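Exercise 3.2. Students should predict the tertiary structure of the chain below and write it as structure tokens, then compare their answer with the key that follows.

Predict this chain's 3D structure.
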Amino acid sequence: MVDRRQVMNFRVRAQQLNRAEGTLANTAVLDLGVQDTGPDGGRWALSVRGVDVGALATEDLALLWTVRGAPHLYRRVDLPEVAAAVEPFSDADAGKRIYDAAKPLKAAGIGILAALDEVAARMRAVVTAPTVKGEVSGRLAAELPEPYLRFCRPCDATHLHEMPFRLAAVRAGLELQPDTSPPVLRRIPGFRKATAVGDRFDLIRGYLRMLGPATPKHVAGYLDAPVKEVKAHWPEDVVEVTVDGEARSLLAADEEALRSADGTATRLLGPYDLLLQARDRETLVAEAARAKELWPVLGRPGAVLADGELVGTWRPRKSGRTFTVAVQPWQKLSASRRKAVVAQAERLAAYRGVPLTGVEFAD
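Answer key:
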């Protein structure tokens, strides 16, 4: 049996949140993908793991719509295997991942994977040069039949369903141009999907490696995949451990690390940092009120990580030339912890390229 403290320490170390410096090549979270949502998204997640993001060349990273249709950063050199790894396991899996868009396709007798391939082929034909999302969507709406389409009330227009659009982009060999809003799609230079997926980029293994111990239900929730499909692809080289009375799996190679990991570190995690993406939220935050504060329906804050525990939330406050970080502690913070939080706020300000005006601790 292991306790939640051991689990948290294991995840902190597996995700390299306790290291001072690192490179893209040895940054583990890039194997699974780093969600890039909001101003303190993917690059900030790399920064708190010791990567000097200011020194990165623009071509080192690529931005793709992948897991749950969200934008994720990857090493460009890994894209062939990443594209193969993020594909749905089956037609049933693909149907779950595209939500309500599956119903009209099934009613029309169109297989979901076949539908994604059809959308991908048409997307690639449209995107011969960098093209804004709205233009691509408009072209597809004019070319594809009704089962692929939906009427959008806010736009007062007919569009392709959103999730098939996003999940087909990688199949089409398309990436997102960084820092564009609305998104601009472009072809991935020299793209060719790998024919097989190695252990390093396998999404189930990646989840267990960085967010384990876990159950198939946890992984399925992360992928938006059916639990049945995840169980069918469950690794064989796992051991069973008990966490708070629940049987979970861990890669056998990580068993010793789970029992001995040290998660000493203070970090300001972005709202969509991988550590916060675990589907066992009760392990991350035991109190329901704290969980509600950390994961509201809209407007997520960041999380304060201190020595393997989430100890509060934070939000950036920018007004004119002033930039402050507002911290809501969940417990009394020692002077040393406050000093560490301030140091991380200074790091965040430097990342954003603005001077830090101050850190506000709510009492």
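Discussion points: The chain has a mean pLDDT of 96. Residues 335-352 form the longest helix (18 residues).
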